[in-house]
From TrEMBL:
This is tRNA dihydrouridine synthase DusB. Keywords: Flavoprotein, FMN, NADP, Oxidoreductase, tRNA processing. GO terms for molecular function: flavin adenine dinucleotide binding; RNA binding; tRNA dihydrouridine synthase activity. The keyword DNA-binding does not apply. Its cofactor is FMN. It comes from the Bacteria. Pfam families: Dus. PANTHER family: TRNA-DIHYDROURIDINE(47) SYNTHASE [NAD(P)(+)]-LIKE (PTHR45846). It comes from Flexivirga aerilata. Residues 27-332 form the DUS-like FMN-binding domain. Coiled coil: none annotated.
């Protein structure tokens, strides 16, 4: 009789405050992407990966696209829609972008007292010039007391409701102005439930490679709460390698799952110690693409809008498959589910998973840049009245990190 050994999990479940996340994987918040529709797809694939191993209800954490504290306090219709979750989403996670403690407190109070979420992630990673120009996003942790005030306000308001607050950040502004170790220590001291590091500076934006050594450094510095690693995980193997190389307690996956939500099946399987990997045929890929569009139509309550939105996902879904440029262009103009079905019907759907051609980098890349900051921002880590007024403006028209 042969004895079957249970696979050995790579890591224990991830504890984020009161939430036990069986598979230590987090869907990175991505503006314009991680809405309720995409999260539903990722959640289904994650659960499939967990169930295959017999784990009970194993889940990952799927973070919403970012909302700004100010828009939440003003209850703008778009923001109120973005914070909705499916009835079976657990924990209900929301990412908040904030630039001042008072608005943060009000926003968190709304989320907590109105029972609108179970986890709040604070975004300190946005590198876009219109945000850093005012001292927001990845520029903000440089002003340590402002950073402390925001984290502390969020934790204070969320604590009575047992809602954990986590911090997501970059390494710093540039290589000469690294902030992550001090910010990690501050977040830990103020009661954050975990810290996540995208191991790039704002100057790197999405260029070059993430410096995973920084994740290892953070793990050695922040010792009482989980440290999550983020940056350049394109496969389940990358995720496991990041854990082995850095000692991090879990991983945050962004671009790797674009057009590839089944990566969450792979990740759940890999972390459970199983070799299962999803390698869909083009027929299965287009079934998922279509389902994504249907979910978007439900989310937007508008089929045309859903079709416009799915366009940006099409190249990611089709990466590596043999699909002519003319067809790709037509798919990029799709405006109804019927048109989508017609175009899918013309594809050679029995193509197997193309392997390497479909793997690897997808989504944003770009090149290193000079980080635009308010005048005098780097002169001191303290905030004077002029800069305080400037950073208060950093919340206008923000989108994504
Ligand atoms: C389209 C897009 C939108 C993003 N929006 C956000 C955001 O709203 N909040 C945030 O903290 N990070 C945001 N990010 C950054 C990701 O969460 C993640 O940190 C980054 O992509 C690095 O991880 P990756 O290499 O796995 O993609 C965004 C990234 C992309 C590509």
């Amino acid at each position: 009789m042969t004895e079957t050994l249970a696979p050995t999990p790579v890591l224990p479940p991830l504890q984020i405050g009161c939430h036990t996340i069986e598979s230590p994987v987090v869907l990175a918040p991505m503006a314009g992407i991680t809405n309720r529709a995409f999260r539903r797809l990722c959640r289904r694939y994650g659960a499939a990966g967990s169930a295959a191993g017999g784990a009970s209800g194993a889940t990952s954490l799927y973070v919403s696209e970012m909302i700004t504290s100010r828009a939440l306090v003003e209850r703008t219709p778009l923001t109120m829609r973005l914070i909705e979750h499916d009835a079976d989403e657990q924990p209900r996670s929301i990412q908040l972008y904030s630039v001042d403690p008072a608005t943060t407190a009000r926003a968190v109070h709304i989320l907590a007292s109105e029972n609108r979420c179970d986890h709040i992630d604070l975004n300190f990673g946005c590198p876009v010039p219109k945000v850093t120009r005012r001292g927001g996003g990845a520029a903000l942790p440089w002003k340590t007391e402002l950073f402390r005030g925001i984290v502390s306000a969020a934790v204070r308001e969320a604590a009575p409701y047992d809602i954990p607050v986590t911090v997501k950040m970059r390494k710093g502004i540039d290589d000469d102005h690294l902030t992550f170790l001090e910010a990690g220590r501050i977040a830990e001291g103020e009661g954050a439930a975990a810290v996540a590091l995208h191991a790039r500076t704002a100057a790197q934006a999405y260029s070059g490679t993430a410096k995973w050594e920084a994740i290892a450094q953070l793990k050695q510095t922040v010792t009482s709460i989980p440290v999550l690693g983020n940056g350049d995980i394109w496969s389940a193997e990358d995720a496991v390698r990041m854990v082995r190389e850095t000692g991090c307690d879990g991983v945050v996956v962004g671009r790797g799952c674009l057009g590839r939500p089944w990566l969450f099946t792979d990740l759940a399987a890999a972390f459970a110690g199983r070799p299962t990997r999803v390698q869909p045929t083009l027929r299965e890929v287009t079934d998922t693409l279509r389902l994504h569009t249907v979910y978007l139509a439900e989310f937007f309550e508008d089929e045309r809008k859903a079709c416009r939105d799915i366009r940006k996902h099409i190249a990611w879904y089709l990466k590596g498959f043999r699909v002519g440029s003319h067809l790709r262009a037509s798919l990029g103009l799709v405006d109804s589910l019927t048109a989508l079905d017609d175009l899918i019907g013309t594809l050679e759907l029995d193509q197997p998973w193309p392997g390497d051609a479909a793997e690897g980098q997808r989504g944003r890349a770009g090149s290193e840049r000079h980080v635009v900051l308010p005048e005098g921002w780097l002169d001191s880590q303290a905030l004077d009245d002029r800069l305080r007024a400037e950073v208060a403006q950093a919340e206008l028209s923000v989108s994504g990190g």
